[in-house]
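pasting ABC transporter domain-containing protein for the record, 359 residues
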Amino acid sequence: MNGVELRNVTKAYAGLTVMEDINLEIADGDFLVLLGPSGCGKSTLLNMIAGLEPTTDGSIHINGRDVTSLEPDERDIAMVFQSYALYPTMSVRRNIGFGLKMRGMLRDEIDKRVAEVGDLLQITPLLDRKPSQLSGGQQQRVAIGRALVREPSVFLFDEPLSNLDAKLRADMRIELKRLHERLGRTIVYVTHDQIEAMTLATKVVVLDKGGIQQVDTPENVYRRPANRFVASFVGAPTMNFLDGKLSQNGDDIVFDSGAGCLPLVNVPAEARDLIGRPMTLGARPEHMLFDETGISSRVLLAEPTGPDQYVRLAVAGSELTARSGPEQIFRSGSDTRILIDGARMTLFDSQSGQALLTA
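structre below
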């Protein structure tokens, strides 16, 4: 297949296995994001694809070719790191074209490619400047240009926006998305920032403790998490969790936490098969509805964010977060009522954490 394929890849250091039996297919043209907390193995996985780290077992294929034993410069890949790693004494033009010069490419062809990349990244006016004369965002564009000019099959990005401030990160996310749409090349991108993952990816791989937890579209990772870890890691504020069981209350189904029964609306029919089973209910803040028919709740804190506000509530022996519009006023210590949209809740097995029911 074109793209990247990992077959039963294992990585161990001094006999300690940190990644085991990883199988992953990255389709040609995908923007795949490796997402997870620090130490989950995402950079290790990227470095094995790049050839910077050897695999202990298994194989890696790029565009149908087994590259497991090949050096990085033989894999038809280009990598952009968190550090820009630009040559300070060279102009932007020379920084971008240096790799091509080392490969023996003719000067005219180098100049042509550098000019094309300059236009693509909108850095043509900067080509004769030195890195010290550039902003952080401009330096990152140059680092990306140095990768683009090689015209590889696969681009590998290792947290390339981590050193930028919030506005520059947002701007560069837009630029990277546009770049992918124009080039259509395969991109493998490492980040711990879920906003980057959700906005950039065509597919997200969520990792934890050296293992793949879920591979899916950003929408499905958010709306249909495979397990409790994915649900807790993706989303800010995080998903609310309540331990307990579904119970029948007349014609209605409620969630009994042991300290109170939370009303549910729009409960899917398949939830009835789970009544009485110990489980964990997950509901994101936007799935918590303020309604007079809900359970009595005490407002602990309201956090306005501009278009929304997040309200921390004491509910049935737990603290939950609900989302509201800015027009509603919540005062600490006041009472309100809350219920859960059962059509969008997620139910997890209380022991394994695996999803039993998703929206």
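The longest strand covers residues 288-304.
The chain has two domains: 3-227, 240-357.
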